[in-house]
Amino acid sequence: MKILAIESSCDETSAAVVSGGNALSNIISSQHFHSKFGGVVPELASRAHLKAISYLIDESLDKAGLTMNDINALAVTSQPGLIGSLIVGSNFAKGLSLKYNLPIVPVNHIEGHIFSGNLQDSQLEFPYITLVVSGGHTAIFLVESYSEYTAMGLTKDDAAGEAFDKIAKLLGMPYPGGPHIDKNAKNGNPKAYNFPRSMMNSKDFNFSFSGIKTAIRYFIAKNFPDGIPDEVIPDLAASAQAAIVDVLVAKTVEAAAKTNVNHIVIAGGVSANSSLRSEMAAKASIEYINVIAPELQYCMDNAAMIGFIAEKKLEENDIKDYSDLTFRVNPNALRAKRK
Questions:
Q1: By CB atoms within 10 Å of each CB, which of 4, 178, 259, 321 scores lowest?
Q2: Do 3-113+301-322 and 122-298 share a fold?
């Protein structure tokens, strides 16, 4: 079976062809122009998806050496994400479904990230823990099969990636801020400043990252009212990064130990962070737990992960179950309920 997949949940437009659990192509177009606005502008993101999606689909088919006549099914991200961006992808997929009489599998974007470890490593066995960490989501899942997974912990407010971006802005860095924090932190001392590790010792696996952003804003206003000296930036970046990474690592490794699993997958855009990768591997190894960190193209929003889990759904269900084109997109992100 050959599946053409589309991902357009935020500011990456992606098309991929997946077959037999392998990505025959995975084309991604990032909307870098959002940097001048300091964040993703939803309406502009939707327009950019409209411009790019047809070309990317053609390119993904060409790279796979296929045409639409070779495709057996379609997959598209239906939730969560920016409502306009989701509509562009889902409506384009529905149009292709009607034109070529193909079944279409609506896929939860988070599911794509959850199983990206299997896309990266075909030998990965269930059960395992997945940490999905990005600009919009921070969550820990116990994954027991392609159809069975449980959320062990969610963020109560900001996602880790959102915190990175907001802290980067406070430090005068451009959007997206995560990569700039990571780069500057390599030259800094992570113990220079002691920023809060919110919910580090809570008796659950939930997260909260809004507090660290506020703490750093007050710290800068108090200590550097006339502006942050250039030589201080690396230490601030390293200390902020350490505060976020420490919480992510501690809770994820604890979740794996509690559920007695031997593998951890880290996925989503923030999983590209070098400190998160190294610290997670170091702490997990103490518990004899293996860490799978997908290559960069599978960390960021991409269509290959959407096609991968769509193929698993088609294997487990009747293909006729995916002939309904009345499904709607849903923008709601995962958040833990406040008490």
A1: 321
A2: yes
Residues 120, 292: Cα–Cα separation, whole Å: 8
- DSSP letter string, 28-60: EEE-GGGGGGTS--HHHHHHHHHHHHHHHHHHH
Q: How far is CA 199 from CA 212, 243, 250, 276, 279, in A?
A: 11, 11, 11, 18, 19
**pLDDT tens for residues 104-152?**
999 999 999 999 999 999 999 999 999 999 988 999 999 999 999 999 9
Q: Which residues pair with 76 in a beta bridge?
A: 6, 106
Residue with structure tokens 């963020």?
A: 155
- Give ∠ CA 131-137-143 in degrees, rounded to 5: 35
Which CATH superfamily is 122-298 part of? Answer: ATPase, nucleotide binding domain (3.30.420.40)
Residue 108 and residue 90 in contact, taking contact as beta carbons nearer than 8 Å: no
Residue 25, amino acid: S
Q: Which residue ranges make up each domain of the chain?
A: 3-113+301-322, 122-298
Q: For Cα atoms 307, 130, 331, give the angle at the middle one, nearest 5 degrees.
A: 60
Where b means 16+ CB within 10 Å and e means fewer, 104-124 reads: bbbbbbbbbbbbbbbbbeeeb
Q: Are 24 and 5 in contact (CB under 8 A)?
A: no
- How do residues 217-270 score in pLDDT, each as one tens digit? 999 999 999 999 999 999 999 999 999 999 999 999 999 999 999 999 999 999
- What's the pTM? 0.94
Residues 3-113+301-322, CATH architecture: 2-Layer Sandwich (3.30)
